[in-house]
Amino acid sequence: MLAIFSITLPIFVLIGTGVIAGRFLSLERKDLRGLSHFVWYFALPALILRAFVLHPISDFLHLDYLLLYLTASLLTFGMTLSVARFTRGKSLTESALMALGSASGNSGFVGFPVASLVVGPLAPIGLALNMIVENLVILPTGMVLAEDGQRGGAGALKALRGSLMSLVRNPLIISLVIGAAISASGIDFKSMALFHAIDMLANASGAVALFIVGATLVSTKAGGSLLPDATQVSVGKLVLHPLSVLAVSFLMPGLDPEMRKMAIVYAASPMLTVYPIIGQRFGYQEMSSAALLMATTASFFTISIMLALV
């Protein structure tokens, strides 16, 4: 058990540091915007670029991992959507947002720091593959369905076009393309001076991201009436998503055990820190904020339990 806490304790100490800073330094979301932009536009892209520089492109051609994470994420999305829509009678928009929260993990801000301590050099490879699943499939699907619930088919088409345009501008997708090109070219990029700058940016990603998660929680509020919805999203994210990965992995007997472990670790992370911002766009900021607060707080225990199991 001490080995488990040696992995999780540094993660949540950094989150706790963010909470303390947010509380006593009165940091607000607008104050954190600059840090978030630094991680999103510079540190995480540098992390992905570094992974491609240090690994041959063949290391990223893990179609079995990609299939595992994609199938499990879609399974989680579908089950959460069905329960919310047909069992609990939620609107299509709210059901889609709840499914989005359950099926899209915070791979960059929480999943990667944990995975790097568990599977080491495999973690950036998993991050790159997760970005493909989350940015190309899960997020666009959730946004399109949420828009469809509010405005009908025309709204869905507009959301789809917006999602496709955002992919073109997504810094993580851009870094994936550039990194793949560098890796495929065979250029010894790591001997160049520019690589050291990329390396420094990449090293900053984990600590700063976790600090932002903690500071964000201070300004996140949850009302009692939102408890059932927040609970469903949180259980879907912290329990159903990793269990779906585990279940699907049993259907893939040739899968590398380390890949299976890494997929479970990433799936066990809470949802994106921008989840309340997505919810605000559709009028469900309170529900998404409550879910983020509950899932991030509970993840201290659920991640520890998950690590003990894997």
Question: Could you list some keywords that capture this structure?
Answer:
310 residues; mainly alpha; Na+/H+ antiporter like fold; 13 helices; membrane
The CATH topology is: Na+/H+ antiporter like fold
How many helices? The count is 13
Radius of gyration: 19 Å
Categorize the overall geometry. globular
CATH-derived architecture: Up-down Bundle
Main pleated-sheet profile: none
Helix content, binned percent: over 70%
Number of domains: 1
Strand content: under 5%
Protein name: Permease
Keywords: Cell membrane, Membrane, Transmembrane, Transmembrane helix, Transport
Transmembrane segments: 6-26, 38-57, 63-84, 96-119, 125-146, 167-187, 193-218, 238-255, 261-278, 290-309
Subcellular location: Membrane
What's the gist of this structure?
It is a multi-pass membrane protein. By secondary structure, the chain is mainly α. It contains 13 helices and no strands.
Q: Explain this structure to me?
A:
This protein is mainly α. It has a single domain, classed as Up-down Bundle (Na+/H+ antiporter like fold). It is built from 13 helices and no strands. The chain has helices at 2-24, 29-54, 63-87, 92-103, 107-119, 123-151, 153-169, 171-185, 193-218, 227-249, 257-267, 275-281, 285-309. The longest helix has 29 residues, at 123-151. The chain is globular. The two termini are 12 Å apart. The relative contact order is 0.19. The model has no long low-confidence stretch (mean pLDDT 84). It comes from Rhizobium aquaticum. This is Permease. Pfam families: Mem_trans (PF03547). InterPro entries: Mem_transp_PIN-like. The chain crosses the membrane at residues 6-26, 38-57, 63-84, 96-119, 125-146, 167-187, 193-218, 238-255, 261-278, 290-309.
